Amino acid sequence: EAGGPATSPEALAPPEPPAEPAAPTEPAPAESSLPPPLPKDPAERLRLAEGLREEGNAKFKAQDAAGARTTYEKALTLLRLPGDELSQELKAGLKACRTPVLLNLALCSLRAEPCEAGYALELCEEVLDEEPENAKAMYRKAKALIELDELKEAEWELVRACKLMPKDPAPRRDLEQLRQRTRDALAKQKATFGGLFERGPGFASDDRAHGAAGGGSKLSERDVNDIYFHDDKENPYEASDDPLSQAHKLQADGQLGDAVMAWEAALSRSASKAEWPEHFAQCLDFGRLFMDLNLDRLALRCFSKVLEPPESGSADSEQPPTPAASASSQQHALLLKA
Q1: What is the mean pLDDT of residues 123-134?
Q2: Which residue intervals make up region (Disordered) (predicted)?
Q3: Residues contacting 141, CB < 8 A, separation 6+
C-alpha cells in the first residue's frame, strides 16, 4: 500500500531449505591381507629366494623349525619357474638354490609334530629326480621311509647313503639300528609263532641237523671260496660258541674286518648243520656288510647263493639236495642284487 514500508525483493523470496548434515567420513580402507604378487623377473625371484633361504637357515639354527619351514616354503614358491626360456646360468642358479631348500624343508617336515614323513619323502624324491646320487636326499628319504614303516626300501637307501658318505657316522648308525630292529622283529615273530610250526621228522629235524654236523652236506670248497673273504687265513671265530652274535656285535661296534670273519664262521656253522633258512638269512646279512665295505662283487656272490643255492650230495647219496630259499628271502636278494 502507498505510504507503507518498502519491501525488498529478497524479503519476498522463499526461505532456503536447511542445510543437510555432512555425511560421516568413511575410514580409509585397510591394507589388503593378500600376499604381494610374485615378481615376474626370474633373476629377482632368485635373489629373493636366496635371501629367504638364508633367513630359514638362521631360524632353524635358532631352534625355530616351524618358522624355518614357513620361510623355506616361501622360497620354494619363488623358485617354481618354467625353465623353457631361462638362460643356462639362471637355470643353474635356480637349481643351486632349490636343492638345499628342498632338503631343508624335508628335514623340517621330519622334525615336525606330528612328523610329516609323506611330504618329506616327496621333497627328497624331487631332488633325486634331478640328482640321483645326492647322498643327503637318499639319507633323508630313508628317514622318511622308516617313519612310514617301509623298512626294506629304507635299508636300501641307507646302504646307498653309506657308500656315498663313508666318513659320516650317522647313516651307518641308522642302518645298524634298522637292521637290529628287523632282527628283533623276526625274533619276536619266531617266539610268538614258533610253537605253531614245530619241526617234524625229516630233513629239518634236530636229528637231521646233528647228522649233518657229523659229516653231512656242506658247502663245497669252491662255494666257500666264492663267498668267504678270509678263506685262506685262520679264522679265530671258528671256535666261538656263538659266532653269529659276535658278528652282529662287531658290526655294530664298527669292527668290520673282524665282523667279516665272524660272519664267515656263522655261515660255515649253519651250513654244516643244514640250518638252511638261517643260512640264507645270514647270506643276506653278510652281503649287506660287503655292500657297506664297497665290495660289491662279494656282495653279489652272497645274494646269488640265496637265489641259486648249491646242491649238496651226489646222485648216489641218501642226502637230499639243499632246499631253495624262501620266496621272501629270494625277493629280498633280488632287490639287493639289483
Answers
A1: 92
A2: 1-43, 198-218, 309-338
A3: 120, 121, 124, 125, 128, 157
pLDDT band of residue 217 (cuts 50, 70, 90) is very low
Instruction: Look at the alpha carbons of 111, 117, 118, 122 in this order and tell me if their dihedral is positive or negative.
Output: positive
**Residue pair 101/75 in contact by the 8 Å Cβ criterion:** yes
DSSP state of 239: T
Q: Residue 36: which of 48, 23, 51, 54 has the closest Cα?
A: 48
Among residues 243, 234, 247, 255, the alpha carbon closest in space to that of 285 is found at 247
> What percent of the chain has pLDDT above 70?
72
Residue percentage of the chain with pLDDT more than 90? 27
Q: pLDDT band for position 167 (50/70/90)?
A: confident
Q: Dihedrals φ, ψ of 119, to 5°?
A: -65, -40
Rounded Cα distance between 278 and 233, Å, is 25
What is the Cα 230 distance to its own chain's centre? 33
Cα 116 to chain center, whole Å? 13
pLDDT tens track for 250-283: 888 777 778 888 888 898 888 888 888 888 888 8
Q: Is pTM, for the whole model, over 0.70?
A: no
Q: Are 217 and 322 in contact (CB under 8 A)?
A: yes
| Gyration radius of the chain's alpha carbons | 37
Amino acid found at 76 = L
* pLDDT value of position 211: 37
φ/ψ (deg, to 5) at 116: -105, 70
**What is the spatial distance between Cα 269 and Cα 279, in angstroms, rounded to a whole number?**
9
The sign of the CA dihedral 198, 248, 303, 266 is: negative
Q: 128: which residues sit within 8 A by CB, 6+ positions away?
A: 134, 137, 138, 141
